[in-house]
């Protein structure tokens, strides 16, 4: 095994030292919870009767308490294509549990919204907050304390991070994440993007746009571009909570079902009732989070995970900072070209060797910690393998030792670029991040005057009015978590792409978020402090000149005197009510900054 890269070791040691007090206190709580033994043994007879009343054939097994009881926490709904396959999972899991003498119960459900549906809509202002709501809902589900292990069913943007936060609140229990897999490939992502741009430019009608969208999003499973949902799946594999090779197997296939069955049985095998007790608090260690960040960089994953990983880690007593991401990005090569930083989708990536090849290559280069606990019990080296069905039996075989398509996937020694897909920017405006994996080198430096807006609709209106005729940095502020829940501004991607295509130098600067599907235009996002906190972004005026340098990691104000100005205030009245936003006022008041995970929990976790 290769020696660890010194930067990997340096960042890991720094995180361990920074987190020592919080992490020690967290682990002490988890050890105390584990010491109490199987929880349902402490329930009253009446409490147990309530918990088992509807369990039919499993009732006596539960009463005997000789076998493990698996909690199922599900984010099923059939509005999300990625989550629709979960409808079948509870029965598959229950049968798998019975086959090894155990039981399984649906402990509860959590909400799961689709950012693709709410893009540009008022509902997007609930999206980020739904992560913490999901964490709370999952802990309510598990609070009945009748379970020995947990199977989490979730895929998309805020769902997996929320479930991970909840898993760590019950960190004394083993946890396995069971994915649904990507939908089969449809209309190519590049073709879909072209139709979107043609529609934004007024060259095609809505019927043409609808036909393209329906051809791209056409069946059950995760959207096939490499956005936040598929980045989540990568993370669960890199961090040891998926079975090896499980992330990108399509729904409703024999292999997918076999992986679901085996995952359920694996969760039960790791409970405190057996000899291989592996609580999730031990799996999600400092090294596991560093491995997750490496995976994020190597794949050019979603910028949303810079927020989510920080929040997830804090729930386990681990303190991550933006500089950890930046330092690892400098030494981790970009190994994949998946849309939007390439033409391939995740199915093509998986066929080219996928995560197994990538993990193996990174291990060989000393860029991953091999000595971590995972649900396999074999450390991260087990994740070099691929699952196969042989005569109905699930087995794992040696994964690809070479990329099967160098245009999509390359070894760590021959990456598409020598650094990762994300850049941390700092300067007088504050801190921000940029996804650079899809941005061509010639667009990573821009110096231009700004146009300031307070929402994306006014940007679109200015575009339609023909206002953008010179190099421009578009500033969209009052989009941070405290102001309106930090909605994604993915609706600006076609406009920005068209302007760049016309030969203009253009960029976005915002205290909001940009989707994991963000494209080829430089976007300095997650600006902290946000405008609603009186950040410098609230002091900018039209015509001020900014300089963005993704390579140097700088975000500079070239106009003098900006810092001495009073920040402007924006009316928030329109964003306080409608589609339930009034119920989230407490979240807006309590939420922390993006560079600390944009969480409502603060130091409570």
Overview features:
605 residues; alpha/beta; Glucose Oxidase, domain 1; 2 domains; 4-stranded parallel sheet; 14 strands; iron
Layout: helices, strands, pairs:
Elements (H helix, E strand, L loop, with lengths): L5 H30 L9 H8 L6 H6 L4 E6 L14 H11 L3 E7 L5 H4 L8 H16 L6 E5 L5 H11 L5 E3 L11 H12 L5 H11 L11 H11 L15 H16 L10 H4 L2 H14 L4 H12 L6 H8 L16 H6 L2 H11 L20 E6 L2 E6 L23 E6 L2 E6 L9 E9 L2 H9 L7 E5 L4 H4 L8 H9 L4 E5 L12 E6 L16 E5 L4 E4 L27 H6 L15
Parallel strand pairs: 1-2, 1-3, 3-4, 9-10, 10-11, 11-12
Antiparallel strand pairs: 5-6, 7-8, 8-12, 9-13, 13-14
Summarize the model shown.
This protein is α/β, with parallel strands linked by helices and 605 residues long. The chain has helices at residues 6-35, 45-52, 59-64, 89-99, 115-118, 127-142, 159-169, 189-200, 206-216, 228-238, 254-269, 280-283, 286-299, 304-315, 322-329, 346-351, 354-364, 456-464, 481-484, 493-501, 585-590, and strands at residues 69-74, 103-109, 149-153, 175-177, 385-390, 393-398, 422-427, 430-435, 445-453, 472-476, 506-510, 523-528, 545-549, 554-557.
Overview of this protein structure:
Its EC number is 4.2.1.12. Its cofactor is [4Fe-4S] cluster. It is an enzyme of class 4 (lyase). Pathway: Carbohydrate metabolism; Entner-Doudoroff pathway. Residues 408-598 form the Dihydroxy-acid/6-phosphogluconate dehydratase C-terminal domain. By secondary structure, the protein is α/β, with parallel strands linked by helices. The protein folds into 2 domains: 6-184 and 219-398, no CATH class; 422-604, IlvD/EDD C-terminal domain-like (Glucose Oxidase, domain 1). Helices cover 36% and strands 13% of the residues. It is built from 21 helices and 14 strands. The strands form 3 sheets. It has an 8-stranded mixed β-sheet. It has a 4-stranded parallel β-sheet with strand order 2-1-3-4, sandwiched between helices. The chain has a two-stranded antiparallel sheet with strand order 5-6. A hairpin with a 2-residue loop joins strand 7 and strand 8. The mean pLDDT is 92.
């Amino acid at each position: 095994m290769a020696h660890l890269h010194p930067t990997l070791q340096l960042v890991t040691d720094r995180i361990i030292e920074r987190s020592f007090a919080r992490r020690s206190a967290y682990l002490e709580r988890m050890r105390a919870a584990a010491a109490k033994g199987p929880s349902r043994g402490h329930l009253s007879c009446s409490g147990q009767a309530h918990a088992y009343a509807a369990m039919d054939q499993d009732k006596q097994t539960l009463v005997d308490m000789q076998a493990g009881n698996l909690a199922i926490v599900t984010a099923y709904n059939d509005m999300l294509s990625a989550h629709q396959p979960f409808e079948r999972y509870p029965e598959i899991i229950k049968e798998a549990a019975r086959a090894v003498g155990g039981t399984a119960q649906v402990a509860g459900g959590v909400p799961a919204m689709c950012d693709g549906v709410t893009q540009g809509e008022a509902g997007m202002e609930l999206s980020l907050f739904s992560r913490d709501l999901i964490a709370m809902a999952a802990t309510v589900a598990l609070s009945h304390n009748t379970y020995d292990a947990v199977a989490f069913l979730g895929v998309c943007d805020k769902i997996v991070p929320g479930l991970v936060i909840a898993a760590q609140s019950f960190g004394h229990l083993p946890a396995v994440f069971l994915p649904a897999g990507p939908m089969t490939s449809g209309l190519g992502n590049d073709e879909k993007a072209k139709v979107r741009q043609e529609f934004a430019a007024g060259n095609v009608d809505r019927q043409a746009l609808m036909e393209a969208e329906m051809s791209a999003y056409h069946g059950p499973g995760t959207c096939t571009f490499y956005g936040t949902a598929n980045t989540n799946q990568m993370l669960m594999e890199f961090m040891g909570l998926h079975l090896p090779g499980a992330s990108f197997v399509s729904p409703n296939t024999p292999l997918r079902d076999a992986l679901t069955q085996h995952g359920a049985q694996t969760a039960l095998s790791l409970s405190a009732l057996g000899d291989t007790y592996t609580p999730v608090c031990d799996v999600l260690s400092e090294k596991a989070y560093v491995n997750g960040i490496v995976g994020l960089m190597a794949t050019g994953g979603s910028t949303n995970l810079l927020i989510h990983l920080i929040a997830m880690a804090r729930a386990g007593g681990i303190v991550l900072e933006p500089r950890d991401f930046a330092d690892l990005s400098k030494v981790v090569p970009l190994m994949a070209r998946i849309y939007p930083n390439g033409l391939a989708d995740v199915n093509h990536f998986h066929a080219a060797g996928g995560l197994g090849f990538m993990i193996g290559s990174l291990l060989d280069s000393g860029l991953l910690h091999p000595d971590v606990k995972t649900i396999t019990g074999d450390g991260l080296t087990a994740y070099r393998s691929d699952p196969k069905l042989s005569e109905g039996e699930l087995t794992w075989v040696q994964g690809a030792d070479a990329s099967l398509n160098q245009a999509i996937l390359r070894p760590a020694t021959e990456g598409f670029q020598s650094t990762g897909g994300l850049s941390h920017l700092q300067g007088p405006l504050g801190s921000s991040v940029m996804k650079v994996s899809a941005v061509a080198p010639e667009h990573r430096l821009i110096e231009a005057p700004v146009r300031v807006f307070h929402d994306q609709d006014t940007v679109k209106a200015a575009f339609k009015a023909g206002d953008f005729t010179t190099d421009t940095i578009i500033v969209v502020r009052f989009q941070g978590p405290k102001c309106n829940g930090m909605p994604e501004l993915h609706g600006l991607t076609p406009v920005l792409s068209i302007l760049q295509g016309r030969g203009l130098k253009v960029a976005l600067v915002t205290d909001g978020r940009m989707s994991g599907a963000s494209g080829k235009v430089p976007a300095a996002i997650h600006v902290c402090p946000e405008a609603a906190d009186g950040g410098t972004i609230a002091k900018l005026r039209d015509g001020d000149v900014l300089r963005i340098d993704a390579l140097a990691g700088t975000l500079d104000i070239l106009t003098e005197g900006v810092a001495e100005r009073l920040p402007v205030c924006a009316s928030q009245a329109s964003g306080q009510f409608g589609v339930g936003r009034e119920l989230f006022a407490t979240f807006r008041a309590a939420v922390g900054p993006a560079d600390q995970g944009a969480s409502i929990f603060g130091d409570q976790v």
